[in-house]
Amino acid sequence: MTLFQNLPFKSRQKNNQNGSGIHSSIPTQPGIVPPPSGTQQPQAKTLAELEKELEMQAQFVPTRPHKQSRPIKAKGGLLGKIKLALILIGVPVGLFWVVGWVANQPDPTIRRFVAQKAPILLLPSYRSMESEYRQALTSVEQADQLVNNATSAADLDLGEQKVKEAQKHLDSLPIDFLTAWPEYRSWWYDWRFNIYQFQADRQKIGQLGAKVFQEKNAQTLLFNGEQALNTAKQQYQQASTTTDKQIAIASWQAAIDQLEQITSETLAGKTAQKKLEAYKRDFKEIVGLAAGNERISTLIEGARQFSAQAAIASQNPPHTVAQWQQVESLWQEAITRLEQIPAEDLAGYAEAQKLLAQDQYNLGQIQIRRKAEADSVAALEQAQSQIQSFQASTPTDAKSLDRNRTISQLQGIINQLEKVQSGTTAYLKAQELLLSAKNSLKQLQQ
Q: What is d(CA 67, CA 47) in angstroms, rounded to the nearest whole number?
């Protein structure tokens, strides 16, 4: 034992033992009674035996007897009542919501039935229709302002967008239903649909859409005209030969003419009118007077070509009304070209006026001959109709013949045939019928 007196755990083990010789850290199991003090004490255990015993005791975990918990009593008083109230309220509300959702479906049959039986269910539909119509009115006003008072292409683009929005809102309205039930009054809500205002708005939107289309076309013409003008100007400045310069001058002038054709009622037309003065001044300064003289010469030469074709087409009469109209159009084209020559060019203007007087006289003669042809053809057709009526009403028996009535009919036919003028396509046929009618009249008068 003297070998373990200096070990650190010797005194701890000694203190942990009680008088009975059992270690105090090891719980005493129930049912095991320690031996009385008067009995023989067991021999002291060795260190190895104590360590082994400690390891075995460390694996033993004492437990307390399980104490059964008391059952928790359910607290269903107030919470249960709240749940029941929510169920009682939620079921009718949900049912009402479903019925309202079905009633407001965009089906004409359902809406008519609901409007007759329970119109209050259609309150969401009427509010939605009123909202669509008010948005349409707003879009119409904005489109009208942007399109009719446009100051730039951006205004036209935004105006076109507003036109489409207004059209979309108007198309979404169920017109058949609103025509039958235009009025809705319930509690605080009161709205009445105006079909006349709707038709006026739809017509206005159509007009604005057409104007936007016209404005877009004018913008395209303005863009193309300016592009062509700038290209021609650049080609003229880069031209190295006289032929290339003439081609560039012609293209330049054609671009200016194209800009002049844009209607002034559009925004693009107003813009073109403002720019044309600068374009013409630039053209005159760069090209010079030679270009103007060249253009005048071209116009005069073109007028002479048309007048020559008209003279050729009018040869070897008589001609039909359609042929005379073609000749008339040729003379008119020659006159139109001569009228384009400005008075500022004294020499060219004087020559143009001389040719213009001749062409207008020839045009007048052609118009007279065309009218004579039309009148003669009509007179011949009328006379032929009278002849057919005369032949159908005249008896073959001489005894039944009414001489006075027959003479009167023949004289009317003769008068109608004499309206056919010479130099017309109907003249020869009319003379043949006129000779026959006069012979018949002469026989009756003998």
A: 40
Q: Provide DSSP, 322-344.
A: HHHHHHHHHHHHHHHHHHTS-TT
End-to-end CA distance of the chain: 195
Task: Identify which of 251, 356, 248, 249 has the alpha carbon closest to the alpha carbon of residue 300.
Answer: 356
Total number of domains in the chain: 3
Q: Please give the structure tokens belonging to residue 111.
A: 């809406």
Same domain, 225 and 182: no
137 and 228 assigned to the same domain: no
Nearest-CA neighbor of 177 among 198, 200, 205?
198
As to burial, measured by CB atoms within 10 angstroms (0-12 exposed, 13-18 middle, 19+ buried), residue 13 is middle
The whole-model pTM stands at 0.38
Render 276-322 in DSSP notation, one character per residue.
HHHHHHHHHHHH-HHHHHHHHHHHHHHHHHHHHHHHHHT-S----HH
Domain presence at residue 218 = yes
Digit-by-digit pLDDT tens for the chain (446 residues) are 443 344 343 444 444 444 444 444 444 444 444 444 444 455 566 766 766 776 666 554 454 554 555 554 444 567 766 766 666 565 554 544 454 444 455 556 556 655 555 565 555 666 667 777 778 778 888 888 788 777 787 887 888 888 888 878 777 667 655 665 455 556 555 566 667 777 777 787 788 888 888 888 888 888 998 999 999 888 888 888 878 888 888 888 899 888 888 888 888 888 888 888 888 888 877 776 555 667 788 888 899 999 999 999 999 999 999 999 999 999 999 999 999 988 877 778 888 999 999 999 999 999 999 999 999 999 999 999 999 988 888 776 656 667 888 888 899 999 999 999 999 999 999 999 999 999 988 888 77
Does one domain contain both 180 and 221?
Answer: no
Length of the chain: 446
Q: Is residue 92 domain-shared with residue 174, that is, in the same domain?
A: yes
158, 193, 228: which is the final residue of a domain? 193
End-of-domain residue from the set 254, 287, 320: 287
Q: Running DSSP on this structure, what letter comes out for residue 22?
A: S
- Full residue range of the structural domain in which residue 179 is found: 88-193
Buried b or exposed e, range 274-285, using 16+ CB within 10 angstroms: eeeeebeeebee
Are 184 and 228 found together in one domain? no
- Between vectors from CA 398 to CA 392 and to CA 404, what angle results, nearest 5°? 75
